Amino acid sequence: MRRAAAKQGREPTIALINIVFLMLIFFLVAGTLAVPLDPDLSLVKTTELEGNAPADALVVHADGRMTHRGTPVADATAFFTALPPEARDKVRLVPDRDLPAKTLVRLGRALRTAGAGQVVIVTERGLP
């Protein structure tokens, strides 16, 4: 009688190790697609550049006064009722950097209760 030869099969963990290795390589490549900024680079300063707010936005200054297209606005409800009906779905607020947050929240709530569909706060985009 002959003894049956033991079957030599591939180890199932080898396939798993290969998949994990390929995933590691993929994430290494995907993570380096965005080239980091050169540390010696100094960005352009735009402090003297005059920025303009969007035309239909309510500008709120640091002291709480509001303007729309350069003219003073008494309150948020008066601003909202002066808007054309097609602009009432999305109302834009441009707050000053030094405006207290509770004032900004109060203005947003006043616009929402006046009937604004969406209140958008326009901000300056920062560099990540």
Structural overview:
By secondary structure, the protein is of the alpha/beta class. The protein has a domain at 57-121: Nucleotidyltransferase, domain 5, CATH 3.30.420. The chain has three helices and five strands. The chain has helices at 12-31, 76-82, 101-114; strands at residues 57-60, 66-68, 71-73, 90-95, 118-121. A five-stranded mixed β-sheet has the order 3-2-1-4-5, with helices on one face. Strand 2 and strand 3 form a beta hairpin. Helix 2 (76-82) crosses helix 3 (101-114). The mean pLDDT is 79.
Keywords for this entry:
five-stranded mixed beta sheet, alpha/beta, 32% helix, Nucleotidyltransferase, domain 5, 5 strands, single chain, 128 residues
The strands making up the biggest β-sheet line up spatially as 3-2-1-4-5
What is the N-to-C order of secondary-structure elements (H for helix, E for strand)?
A: HEEEHEHE
- Helix share bin: 25-40%
* SS-based class: alpha/beta
Gross morphology is: elongated
CA-based gyration radius: 30 Å
Strand content: 15-25%
Main beta sheet, described? Answer: 5 strands, mixed
- Here the CATH topology of the domain at 57-121 equals Nucleotidyltransferase, domain 5
CATH architecture of the domain at 57-121: 2-Layer Sandwich
Would you summarize the structure shown here?
The chain is of the alpha/beta class.
